[in-house]
Specification:
Elements (H helix, E strand, L loop, with lengths): L1 E7 L12 E8 L10 E6 L5 E5 L5 E7 L2 E8 L5 E9 L4 E3 L2 E2 L8 E5 L12 E5 L1 H6 L17 E3 L16 E3 L8 E4 L2 E2 L17 E9 L12 E6 L7 E10 L7 H5 L7 E15 L3 E21 L3 H4 L17 E8 L6 E5 L12 H6 L19 E23 L2 E15 L14 E20 L2 E18 L15 H5 L7 E4 L3 E4 L15 E18 L3 E19 L4 E5 L19 H6 L4 E4 L5 E19 L2 E12 L3 E2 L5 E8 L10 E6 L3
Parallel strand pairs: 2-8, 2-9, 7-10, 14-17, 27-31
Antiparallel strand pairs: 1-34, 2-5, 3-4, 3-6, 6-7, 11-16, 12-13, 14-15, 16-17, 18-19, 19-20, 20-23, 20-28, 21-22, 23-24, 24-25, 25-26, 26-29, 29-30, 30-33, 31-32, 33-34, 33-35, 36-37
Length: about 700
């Protein structure tokens, strides 16, 4: 539970919610006397919608909950000449100060003044950076990841992959702000939570052409914000207007413009494939002029990324048990000893082993399971080291990403006192990694297709109860799915000769087991493609995160005070099952075939592949049961902006928030209680300690 108290000598954000902007100011006559009851009209240049307010007894007015964009602001009062400020540009979360001085005259007269951008933000204590439409559309974005532009804000340090195409949920959007951890940030999309519970990274990466602007707040947040020790990323999407606007685009990259990889050249392989097509479009306009508007966007990515695999695989004669020409880097023969011949040393302490005749394992001594496993090794296809045979395998293949992103937003104005908007964003990104040994080899130590599905939907209603009282209600849902089965999903390990009942005892995953052999491995030119060992991989990811959020706020303008209060409630569901690539592991090292002293390692004795062939090694099974977790978040805040003088405003606020511990639907979460009564007893011993289950 945390309580935050904010007291700063300037005005904080007055918008009904964080994705909007507001205008505030004072209306006076030529002598400087305030004009109470003056009518303020704020007209949107895009939609024609008029928002009305009036000045209070102190001459102040406040118009919150305005969508970022262009506006005309008019001030009028009986006995004074009306004044209209044209072309005022409001940014996300901006509180623009716009004062009026009205001359005496006829109410039928109007003075037009071209408004300028508010260069000095004197009305907000927030430290941050607004990234505008022009920056988003004109600055280069290699993968069209809009969050990469956060690097324009001081104090923001990105991860190395932030400018790449957003595929996974971690590497492409990770920022450290003012030294805080990258998982300490809060991501908002149209004011709705857009953070994944797993690593606190954004769920939906919006098409840059669908973004109006966004702000990165790095310090001194107002009381309306919570759940962030780092920074706030607040993205606002575009809405339609009274005019139709549309656009299409395509970005293209191709291997014809790339040089070949050194190892591919050395092996005589062609250039790895690289085809990148990123295309899409946007369209927006009116359904009913001055009342209902729509804006939609679509982006499609078809991406084939070349990968070069290099590694060391067994020579053909080694797979038959013939190690008569297996040598180390110095050219010395590596002798192979029979582990079954281990016997006490007749001449002293310890044990001794016998070397296989001619350094060849007889076929009768090759383990039946190993005999089946060896058939899954690919053939060596490059010369490799002339002495050791290292790096005798090379293969060129390609990762494939088929990314489809859609978004639709509807804005509707029931009247000048009530409006609503709805938006739905969807992203489906299947990531098919290349297979180190080819897709037809189930023992390839890669991963299965990984599918990222992202959804974010929000509906918000804003009602003006009076010129001085505005309220907003919002519901949103955010969901992230990360699903990846093993590359050899469904493989029957009994076909290798292992016991038929073993898989049932292991459970998930059902895949070709990982087999690590010292000296045998494969690597890729792109990270996180090879996840297994010499053969096989058992990694499994079944993740589903869902966040439901209910938010409400009220803004009340008084004489010298602007009060804002609100509450927030979230239900955060975290469902996950994940195993490593070594959930089922067999490990073979030289120690099982070294000698003559089996306890003494040597550069000229023992070979990992020989240990596998005779069926002697180690292993482990690491199960990972699924968890179905839920926690809840509550937040309540109150803040006040007090205009002490026409030039000095003090903001102070209070926020209370509480986040419950996680609970599991099936009570699978455990702790160890050192003082709990022990499950067993022993005479004369006071045994204590045992597992306790959360919620039980």
């Amino acid at each position: 539970m945390t309580i935050r108290i904010l007291v700063v000598a300037c005005l904080a954000s007055l918008s009904a919610w964080a994705q909007t902007a507001s205008v505030t100011g004072r209306v006076s006559d030529p002598s400087g006397a305030v004009i109470p009851g003056a009518k303020i009209e704020v007209t949107s240049n895009d939609t024609g919608i008029v928002t009305v307010a009036e000045t209070n007894a102190e001459g102040y007015y406040n118009v919150p909950s305005l969508q970022p964009g262009g506006y005309d602001v008019t001030a009028s009062q009986d006995g004074f000449v009306s004044q209209r400020r044209q072309g005022l540009r409001l940014l996300v979360q901006q509180v623009a100060r716009l004062d009026f001085q009205l001359d005496l005259g006829s109410v039928t007269e109007t003075i037009d003044v071209n408004a300028q951008a508010v260069l000095l933000d004197s009305e907000s204590s927030t430290v941050g950076q607004v990234i505008g439409t022009r920056q988003i559309s004109e600055l280069p974005l290699l993968g069209r990841n809009p969050y990469a532009l956060a690097m324009l804000a001081p104090g923001v340090r990105p991860s190395s992959g932030v400018n790449n195409l957003p595929i996974d949920q971690i590497s492409t959007v990770s920022f450290m702000i003012n030294g805080q951890r990258a998982s300490s940030n809060e991501f908002l999309l149209d004011g709705a939570p857009n953070s994944a519970p797993s690593q606190n990274q954004p769920v939906v990466n919006t098409n840059p052409d669908a973004i109006l602007e966004f702000k990165v707040e790095t310090n001194n947040f107002s009381a309306e914000y919570g759940r962030a020790a780092g920074g706030i990323f607040n993205v606002v999407t575009k809405s339609g207007g009274n005019d139709f606007h549309w656009g299409v685009y395509e970005f293209l990259r191709n291997e014809k413009l790339n040089a070949n990889d050194y190892f591919a050249n050395r092996a005589g392989s062609p250039r790895p494939p690289f085809k990148f097509n990123q295309f899409g479009g946007t369209i927006g306009g009116p359904v009913i002029k001055n009342r209902t508007f729509f804006f939609g966007s679509v982006e499609i990515v078809r991406f084939v990324q070349g990968v070069t695999f290099t590694g060391t695989v067994p020579q053909a004669e080694q797979l038959t048990g013939d190690f008569s020409n297996t040598r180390n880097g110095a050219g010395n023969l590596i002798r192979i000893f029979d582990p079954r011949s281990t016997a006490p040393n007749p001449s002293g302490s310890g044990f001794l082993r016998d070397q296989f005749a001619n350094n060849v394992i007889p076929s009768s001594m090759i383990d039946p399971v190993a005999a089946n496993v060896r058939g899954f090794f690919p053939a060596a296809n490059t010369p490799g080291n002339p002495v050791t045979g290292v790096n005798n395998y090379s293969r060129v293949d390609g990762n494939r990403v088929d990314k489809d992103t859609y978004s639709m937003r509807i804005d509707h104005n029931f009247s000048d006192r009530n409006r609503i908007f709805w938006r739905y964003s969807y992203d489906d990104t299947p990531f098919k990694r290349a297979a180190p040994y080819g897709r037809d080899n189930p023992a390839s130590p890669g991963t299965g297709a990984q599918i990222f599905t992202r959804k974010n939907a929000v509906v918000e209603d804003t009602h003006t109860f009076s010129p001085t009282l505005i309220g907003s209600l919002r519901y949103s849902i955010t969901r992230l799915v990360n699903h990846r089965e093993p590359f050899s999903d469904g493989f029957d390990i009994a076909s290798l000769g292992l016991p038929a009942n073993l898989q049932g005892q292991i459970g998930e995953p059902r895949a070709f087991p990982r087999i690590d052999i010292t000296g045998m491995s494969v690597t890729s030119s792109i990270p996180n493609i090879v996840v297994g060992g010499a053969l096989g991989a058992t990694d499994l990811i079944r993740l589903g995160n869902t966040t439901h959020a209910f938010q409400g706020s009220m803004t009340k303008s008084l004489n010298a005070h602007t009060l804002k209060w609100g509450a927030e409630y979230r239900v955060i569901q975290f469902n996950n099952q994940q195993t490593g690539s070594n959930a089922i592991l067999f490990n073979f090292t030289p120690q099982w075939t070294q000698g003559p002293n089996p306890s003494a390692s040597s550069a000229t004795a023992g070979y990992g592949l020989a240990s596998m062939l005779v069926g002697v090694g180690g292993g482990s099974i690491t199960p990972a049961p699924p968890v179905t977790q839920t926690n809840k978040y509550y937040g309540v805040y109150l803040q006040d902006s007090w205009k002490l003088t026409s030039k000095l405003t003090m903001n102070y606020g209070l926020r209370w928030e509480y986040e419950t511990p996680r609970t599991d639907r099936y009570d699978k979460l455990t702790n160890f209680d050192f003082n709990a009564p022990a499950a067993i007893s022993a005479p004369g011993l006071d045994l204590r300690g045992g597992l306790t289950f959360v919620g039980v």
